[in-house]
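Lecture notes, continued. The same structure-token format from the folding unit now serves as the input rather than the output. Read the line below as a description of shape only.
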């Protein structure tokens, strides 16, 4: 399966490859390679999600870039822990909801396009934010563009209800996804660890 956002790219590259192949088979090599990369990049691997209201799942595939304790004053409104996940061009870029819950907060901020692995990219790059509420738990998910990524895609809006592991969007061509959780969540991942959206448990309620 692949994300529907890839259809236009695939159609254009397929047509270009065909035209160039008719002209000369050698000319089609480059666009065919790009076509294969686009199909690979926009892949949407199936995930067997095991719902658990006490677990916080990763919202993205990638590598944990940092884990920081912060003051979050827009949605959680208190001490929180921010887990930053860097997505390379080789990772699937589908974003999934970390928890069951309703989207009760949204925010979009235009910005720059620094490489997503830069520590300050989160503060100045283009960013889309969802605030998901599940009973007493509030969680923020930031979709952040990178040097190559130039478009954030989000399928849902304020008021929508998300199932844990449900796809809510993607970021095109390299990016960073951040999950911000209350400070009383026990974090189970560490810097440098590879995670999978909808599969890896990144945090758990301490009374679980």
């Amino acid at each position: 399966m692949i994300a529907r956002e890839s259809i236009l790219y695939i159609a254009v590259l397929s047509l270009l490859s065909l035209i160039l192949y008719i002209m000369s088979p050698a000319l089609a090599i480059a666009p065919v390679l790009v076509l294969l990369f686009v199909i690979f990049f926009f892949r949407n691997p199936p995930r067997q999600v095991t719902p658990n209201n006490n677990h916080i799942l990763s919202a993205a595939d990638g590598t944990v870039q940092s884990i920081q304790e912060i003051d979050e004053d827009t949605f959680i409104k208190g001490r929180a822990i921010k887990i930053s996940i860097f997505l390379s061009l080789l990772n699937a870029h589908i974003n999934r909801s970390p928890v069951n819950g309703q989207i009760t907060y949204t925010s979009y901020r235009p910005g720059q396009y620094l490489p997503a692995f830069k520590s300050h990219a989160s503060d100045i790059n283009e960013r889309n934010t969802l605030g998901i509420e599940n009973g007493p738990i509030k969680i923020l998910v930031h979709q952040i563009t990178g040097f190559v990524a130039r478009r954030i895609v989000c399928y849902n809006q304020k008021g929508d209800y998300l199932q844990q592991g449900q796809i809510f969007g993607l970021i095109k061509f390299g990016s960073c996804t951040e999950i911000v959780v209350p400070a009383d969540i026990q974090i189970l991942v560490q810097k440098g660890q590879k995670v999978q959206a909808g599969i890896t448990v990144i945090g758990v309620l301490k009374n679980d």
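Point for the exam: The CA atoms of residues 129 and 142 lie 5 Å apart.
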